[in-house]
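pasting for the record
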Amino acid sequence: LIQSLKICLNTSLYLKLKMRVDYLLQVFLCETAMCGRFYHPMCIAEITLRDHDKSEQIALAESIKKGEGFSCSMHKCWKCGKGEVKEERDLQFGICRRCPRVWHRKCFPA
């Protein structure tokens, strides 16, 4: 009985660790040229669709897992949702050092 209990516990621990490692390895590259950032499908779905319901986030995560591309949150202003215009000072991006967010200089939070 004790031996079978040890095997059961070891198997359970092994499966938990395997699930965690599989999750950590399941990251996908942003399709924007020269970006180079990787994200878990559900993480980027929650960030990108922050104002949408959970079912839409899950649908996006599933499409990313199937190989459909995505553009990460580092390519659109967090406040207004528009892209960077490098030639205009107010429309250049400021980047958060702690999270995957960018803002135009004019949109940057105080």
